[in-house]
Design goal:
The protein has seven helices and five strands; from the N terminus they run ααααβββαβαβα. It is of the alpha+beta class. It has two domains: about 55 residues; about 90 residues, no CATH class. The termini are far apart. The model has no long low-confidence stretch (mean pLDDT about 95).
């Protein structure tokens, strides 16, 4: 398995897609029930293959990720070959940017001496999706990139 198995809730949400996946392998509903009871290891393998297919489809479309901690924000823009990072670090332990008040403070005090902005870029490995998945495993979430684009304009003024 390349990624992680989808959760029970995710599999329930993708119920119809899973039925289509089984049908593409000529597995009927009755055969699936039989596989689950008589060959649970085969059922587990099918769930793993389906999970990887779903992850690949999702990861192929990712262009932006965000990761917040109490005093740092990591904003990623991902192309086919590179990952660009804008990092915001608040050097004030009293400010927690994961809270509404802390985030509002950051918005109002972006040019404060306690706020540092960093940028970086690096080439992706041959397996772009695995690189993205590693960031998601570390807590990053997929976004549309509005925050990255905002900070990109700030940094490149």
């Amino acid at each position: 398995m390349k990624y992680t198995r989808l959760t029970k809730e995710q599999l329930e949400e993708l119920h119809q897609e899973f039925i289509n996946f089984l049908a593409s392998q000529s597995i009927t509903a009755g055969e699936w029930e039989e596989i689950k009871t008589q060959k649970p290891e085969v059922a587990e393998e099918e769930l793993d293959v389906f999970s990887d297919l779903i992850w690949e489809g999702v990861l192929d479309k990712v262009t932006h990720l965000e990761h917040f901690s109490p005093n740092q924000m990591f904003l990623f823009h991902i192309t086919q070959v590179e990952i660009h990072l804008i990092a915001v670090k608040v050097n004030n332990e009293a400010i927690d940017i994961t809270t509404l008040q802390g985030y509002q403070w950051l918005q109002k005090n972006l040019m404060d001496d306690a706020v540092n902005l960093y940028t970086s870029s690096k080439a992706l490995t041959e397996d772009r999706n695995k690189d993205i998945f590693a960031l998601i495993q570390q807590g990053a979430v997929i976004t549309k990139g509005e925050l990255f684009n905002y900070f990109d304009r700030v940094v490149n003024k």
